[in-house]
Write a structure and sequence with these properties.
This protein has 2 domains: 73 residues, no CATH class; 123 residues, no CATH class. It is 39% helix and 17% strand. The chain contains 8 helices and 8 strands. Strands 3-4-5-6-7-8 form a 6-stranded antiparallel beta sheet, with helices on both faces. The protein has a two-stranded antiparallel ribbon with strand order 1-2.
């Protein structure tokens, strides 16, 4: 398995992309490396101490060991992913919780626009507002009124889509690699039913 240093060495900085959206697992390799260097702790320890435990995500861990843990290492459950989402929603509503309201506001503040593509058109065709912008770690849609993320890694596919204003949303997971053809229709159906997350 390549080391974090090997993974970091393979990341190239593209100054021409500054201010534009480009999904970058490599960027998280740098964040992980900087955090480990600054604290002297492995990333999985930092993640547990600073994020997972405070959010009550007791069933989340690094299941598959990747040197690029920040970009690819999280293994979680729908319940734990919902705990994360609820914490952000509560903070956006100025309710007490582990996520400070200022941090939640930054997470849903647009950092870069996401251009229309075949992927965004496919998401829209299911009745889901496709991402229009990227916040800090979250995709933003519907003029910033919705936030979420789509993701997958070895052995799973996940999607979450939540309201930034009314406490509704849904979290859907599947044990399929690249199972978006299964996950996204279920997400669309859950959102159409107006399932509350609070």
């Amino acid at each position: 398995m390549p080391s974090l240093a090997d993974a970091r060495a393979e990341v190239e900085f593209d100054a021409a992309a500054a201010g534009r959206f480009r999904y970058s697992g490599g960027g998280y390799v740098f964040v992980q490396s900087l955090l480990e260097e600054a604290t002297g702790k492995p990333f999985f320890v930092l993640a547990e101490e600073r994020v997972l435990a405070p959010l009550g995500m007791c069933d989340s861990t690094d299941w598959h060991v990747y040197s690029e843990a920040a970009a690819a290492g999280l293994w979680t459950t729908p319940v734990d992913l919902a705990r994360f989402a609820l914490s952000v929603q509560r903070a956006l509503a100025d309710r007490r919780g582990p996520v400070p309201p200022r941090v939640a506001s930054l997470m849903v503040e647009p950092q870069a626009e996401i251009p229309a593509s075949e992927d965004t058109d496919a998401i829209r065709s299911l009745g889901i507002a496709p991402p229009e912008a990227m916040g800090l770690g979250l995709f933003l849609a519907d003029g910033g009124r919705r936030f979420g993320h789509l993701g997958g890694n070895h052995g799973f596919t996940a999607a979450l889509d939540l309201s930034a204003v009314d406490g509704t949303g849904a979290v859907v997971m599947s044990d399929l690699d690249n199972g978006f053809e299964v996950v996204l229709p279920v997400l669309a159906e859950a959102l159409a039913d107006g399932i509350p997350t609070t």
